[in-house]
């Protein structure tokens, strides 16, 4: 429960400020161009430093890294809540990402080494999977409540009591082996890997305002790919690699990483578009928007804890992952029929339930497969790779699908306004123009969500073809006696 609480704090912080962003922008006088850094500073630091955070957990010990991450995250949240300028808020969000990169991999590796009995491990991963999948929606709900009834700053301050409770609980309840003294930090690998990820994520985020053919965007994407290629080359030669290539050479583990990344691309896109659809098109308040995501959160929890957790030790992981991705793709496909007319009950609610159940079937077996059979000294970096796939997938999905939506909306609005002028011989009235813009916004959303459904189907294909492992065995059976951790 302590680990799940800390993970919830990290995951929901990626979305809790979304609904609060307009209020923060007004108070701190941010420009429209700069406001994205409230989100991007967090995701870039988090996604770019996760691998290094995982290796640090292996070096100094997972519990110690976990505790440092909690205190640092709380301090960064306090700084952000007290921000008196946009630069101070951007810095605080980046620091949250840095300490989140320490916290997330140590949390998952502690979960892996603490629960060795297969049934208990399945239950633990079910709860963890529900947190990982539902945290984004919970963040939207909490953001709406805190923004509407308190102040946007409480979207950051709320992390402080959560972190302190988790810190006290972890100090008493969690047990871990000392760090592995022979593990060394791969500094060149950290620079190449983190630099490549940051360049790609930043390039995708800049593609929204600049366009994909912009020189800066192309330079960032090409440069990021080149850095990642250099990273892979260096990992095969480094004496103490940041990411040992045998971790990703394993077919099942690579399939789990790819499935996670692809599924989250589509899921984060849905969160973005549904938030705007509910608030801008349907006129929902922040609280009502957050509450509208509750059915999806409930479906993710049911899928993770009541279906995946009960079936994983009886079935091969792909039997859950592939159908889960297909179910989520069907839910996304339903959203391609949205119009500017209210359609929550007829379209949004069924789609949320299908996507939620599908993601619940994906998250838990992906995490269990990715971390299964890993040597103790590699568990931190393996856990970090799972989180990297999730975080980078979410960042890329948001930027990629939002660019598609914006382009489709602009084309639709321009062509329909031109048709209106040609039909009447005069500029459209404000009412006609407003209706066209609203229809165009929804049209862009449906096009982008359609691509999200295709990406989710690709996740189903990857899970079904690459993940060939059978039902997991008791982890304690294959773990050397010296490596076992007492369960408490």
Automatic annotation (TrEMBL):
<feature type="transmembrane region" description="Helical">
    <location>
        <begin position="65"/>
        <end position="84"/>
    </location>
</feature>
<keyword id="KW-1003">Cell membrane</keyword>
<feature type="domain" description="Major facilitator superfamily (MFS) profile">
    <location>
        <begin position="1"/>
        <end position="476"/>
    </location>
</feature>
<feature type="transmembrane region" description="Helical">
    <location>
        <begin position="441"/>
        <end position="463"/>
    </location>
</feature>
<dbReference type="InterPro" id="IPR004638">
    <property type="entry name" value="EmrB-like"/>
</dbReference>
<dbReference type="InterPro" id="IPR011701">
    <property type="entry name" value="MFS"/>
</dbReference>
<dbReference type="Pfam" id="PF07690">
    <property type="entry name" value="MFS_1"/>
</dbReference>
<keyword id="KW-0046">Antibiotic resistance</keyword>
<keyword id="KW-0813">Transport</keyword>
<keyword id="KW-0472">Membrane</keyword>
<feature type="transmembrane region" description="Helical">
    <location>
        <begin position="152"/>
        <end position="173"/>
    </location>
</feature>
<feature type="transmembrane region" description="Helical">
    <location>
        <begin position="290"/>
        <end position="312"/>
    </location>
</feature>
<dbReference type="InterPro" id="IPR005829">
    <property type="entry name" value="Sugar_transporter_CS"/>
</dbReference>
<feature type="transmembrane region" description="Helical">
    <location>
        <begin position="34"/>
        <end position="53"/>
    </location>
</feature>
<feature type="transmembrane region" description="Helical">
    <location>
        <begin position="215"/>
        <end position="234"/>
    </location>
</feature>
<feature type="transmembrane region" description="Helical">
    <location>
        <begin position="125"/>
        <end position="146"/>
    </location>
</feature>
<feature type="transmembrane region" description="Helical">
    <location>
        <begin position="319"/>
        <end position="338"/>
    </location>
</feature>
<dbReference type="InterPro" id="IPR036259">
    <property type="entry name" value="MFS_trans_sf"/>
</dbReference>
<dbReference type="InterPro" id="IPR020846">
    <property type="entry name" value="MFS_dom"/>
</dbReference>
<feature type="transmembrane region" description="Helical">
    <location>
        <begin position="255"/>
        <end position="278"/>
    </location>
</feature>
<keyword id="KW-0812">Transmembrane</keyword>
<feature type="transmembrane region" description="Helical">
    <location>
        <begin position="90"/>
        <end position="113"/>
    </location>
</feature>
<feature type="transmembrane region" description="Helical">
    <location>
        <begin position="185"/>
        <end position="203"/>
    </location>
</feature>
<protein>
    <submittedName>
        <fullName>Puromycin resistance protein pur8</fullName>
    </submittedName>
</protein>
<keyword id="KW-1133">Transmembrane helix</keyword>
